[in-house]
Amino acid sequence: MHTPLTSPRNLWQTNPERMAWLILLAAFGAFLLLAVSIPWSVNYVLRYATTPMVAQLEPTVGTVLLYTANGADPIAVTNARDNIPQGSKLVTTGEATQGVLGLTALPDSPESIGTVHLYPGTTLTVLRFQKPRFQTSKEPYSVRLRLDEGRIRIFTNSRDERALIVRVDVPHGYTVLSEGSYTFSVKEERTELSVSQGEAQLFHESGAELSVGPGLRTWMDGGDPPSEPVSAERNLIQVGDFSQPMLENWEVYSEAPYVAPGAVEVGEQDGRRVAHFVRLGEDGIHTEVGMRQALDQDVNGYDLLAFRVDVRLLRQTLRGAGEKSSEFPLRVEVAYTDIYGKELTWGHGFYYRDPPTDWPVSGGEKIAPFAWYTYESPNLMDVLADTRPSRINSIRIYASGWNYEAMISEVGLFIE
Asked: How far is it between the farthest Cα atoms of the chain?
């Protein structure tokens, strides 16, 4: 049998020294490869190996539906539940359903490194909750969520030297969050983000990027990249400055059976645009004139809800606010649904004529006549803490009593 000249056996027979050198070089190469790859592999595992974090779900109002990755039927969660696994989908339905998803680094640790508040009408999927397996790793805690619809508020704080990175996928892109406080609102046509603390990096599906700092908000949709950030404070009222020649976005009404009714008109006064409420007719008969605006705005997840308006009272023939403290020459009412699903109202009125001693005034304040007065409510989220607003339904501004005349300017119901 013929042996090729280049075979190892032939090479060993003809040139054993050369073959020995090849074996030595191959062994040295293998040694170098193992000397580099083994420490590198060990270091890679020590640095990048991960293990799941612990997530708990606590329904705060109503029942939260839990869909696990392996189960088709939802689990109704009415009490606190530990060990929410990755791949779980959480759904809050109805106007009175809320829950809190808590993230902890250790199973028995009372300290949370982050919380996610879920508000009514929200669908949130837990894609990833991971932490480094080994304490020596400097890699951050990693959380990835997908918000398909609804509103969430995220608080992130690792409470130790390890950073926490949260990614939130939305229908129009995704956002990477540093430690801080953030509010997301997702509808089919739009994603909105408000930053209270921290910094968010938005990535639109088109490839556009935008950084949003504290006190700012932005929004994006499928066609347009994120808009330039604006102040996180937002006025829920449309055309509250009465810049339109007519009362656009407002519905005017009047209650004056069998007598001359009042009216609401838009004009200019003292260099500003105003809405003018006036009724001059037969005295001693109750009438009312006002304007309404439907708002239908979800205010879950906001810290601030405040009403602001400039008021000027010019005429008031009925003293105080009437016998039942309900007939102010000017009053504002905000209709809202609280977190328990109950429809309620908050109101505040203004008058300048002192009431009779047996007609105490409640829900309003006395102001000087003929002068502009700026009113700013306290934070209604604090005032109405026991019946915290979940949705603002409408606003009504009206004048009532006998004969009256009042003006308003710069009306705003602000959330932040």
From this structure: 131
Integer angstrom CA distances of residue 173 from 202, 214, 273, 294: 8, 20, 41, 31
Considering the four listed CATH numbers 2.60.40.1930, 3.90.1150.10, 2.60.120.1440, 3.40.5.60, the one that applies to the domain covering 50-232 is 2.60.120.1440
CA distance 194 to 314: 41
Of 376, 410, 412, 413, the closest CA to residue 242 belongs to 410
Q: Which fold has domain 251-415?
A: Jelly Rolls (2.60.120)
Domain edges within the chain: 50-232, 251-415
- The average pLDDT across 34-61 equals 68
Strands 330-338 and 343-351: antiparallel
pLDDT digit string (tens) for 346-385? 999 999 999 998 888 999 999 999 988 989 999 999 999 9
When pLDDT is averaged across residues 334-349 and rounded to a whole number, the result is 94
- State the distance between the two ends of the chain, measured CA to CA, in whole angstroms: 91
3-state secondary structure of 131: strand
Closest C-alpha among 89, 100, 95 to residue 57: 100
b/e per residue, 357-391, with b = 16+ CB within 10 A?
eeeebeebeebebeebeebebeebbeebeeebbbb
pTM of structure: 0.73
